[in-house]
Design goal:
Number of helices: 11
Largest sheet: 4 strands, antiparallel
Helix content: 25-40%
Radius of gyration: 20 Å
């Protein structure tokens, strides 16, 4: 929906002004464009993280294709985009990211800084109030540290202009006042835009507790267009970004797909195209087909 800029003070951080017409529009997901959290799901940002790789900080990926549609990239002519930082896991880091984008979607309409009660933030992360203990606060602290470490580097094709920022600028956990303060970058408002598919995914993530490979493939599949998917084993290995031998990675992927089928999320088959292993994903049910029948 577009509005005249003269009648809109741009209080909504997700509203953008078209320079050529002066009209204002809000960035929302539709059948042709993905909202940016979905782009992050397609990239190898949230992956299975083994104990030996926990906190590892040499992670780097090329995000040019997925993030070049960001408003700041289009306006400034940034075509080369890289993400670097800690490896982010599914068990805590992804839940924390869900809480961050949910919090910004709910409260981030007047400032890049948001402040909310810790219990409320934990709830947005999918954590029940009865489970909030000192150990959990430590885990969330570590997770915010990991997410804040992610650096986004934008540069133009000719290298004459660049911008460096962070996925989250800063985060404060105030134990005494029991609050959480998060500061984001206004230029990345699209990344904080509420993505309803993430909410639908909470049920599946709960069913896949401690199965990080299956969780990672789930959010990847949820970021893809509807309909039948044809995906190679090689692409799934790239998405999970594991460091184990190829044959072990293949076993993990097959087990993860079986887990996704078991909870009623998808139906699939494995085939070969030449020498390449390929999976055909026939159907996807975010609400979990088999579990709905049981209920």
């Amino acid at each position: 929906m577009e509005k005249n800029a003269e009648n809109n003070e741009l209080g909504n951080p997700f509203a953008v002004v078209r320079k050529e017409s002066g009209t204002v529009y809000e960035l929302v997901p539709n059948s042709h464009k993905t909202v940016q959290p979905v782009a992050l799901l397609r990239l190898s940002v949230f992956t299975p993280v083994s104990p030996k790789n926990k906190g590892k900080r040499d992670f780097q990926i090329d995000a040019s294709e997925e993030l070049s549609s960001l408003e700041v990239a289009r306006q400034e002519g940034y075509s080369n985009i890289k993400i670097q930082g800690a490896k982010l896991n599914m068990s805590t880091d992804f839940k924390t990211w869900i809480g961050i984008i949910s919090a910004f979607s709910t409260y981030g309409f007047s400032s890049e800084k948001i402040n909310l009660p810790f219990v409320e933030f934990a709830k947005l992360c999918g954590i029940k109030s009865v489970d909030i203990k000192a150990r959990l606060r430590t885990r969330l602290h570590d997770s915010l540290f990991n997410i804040s470490s992610l650096t986004l580097a934008f540069s133009s094709k000719d290298g004459q202009k660049s911008m460096i920022t962070h996925l989250v600028h800063s985060a404060v956990l105030d134990i005494k006042n029991d609050t959480v303060e998060i500061i984001g970058d206004k230029r990345l408002w699209e990344l904080y835009r509420y993505d309803h598919k993430v909410l639908l995914g909470l049920k599946a993530l709960a069913e896949l507790a401690k199965k990080e490979a299956a969780q990672s493939l789930y959010i990847y599949f949820e970021s893809m267009p509807s309909g039948t998917l044809f995906i190679s084993m090689k692409r799934l290995r790239e998405r999970l970004a594991m460091e184990s031998p190829v044959n072990v990675q293949n076993q993990i992927i097959r087990r993860a797909l079986a887990d996704l089928e078991k909870i009623g999320y998808l139906s699939y088959s494995e085939t070969k195209k030449g020498r390449e292993i390929q999976f055909i994903i026939f159907e996807r049910h975010p609400k979990l087909k088999s579990l709905d029948i049981i209920e």
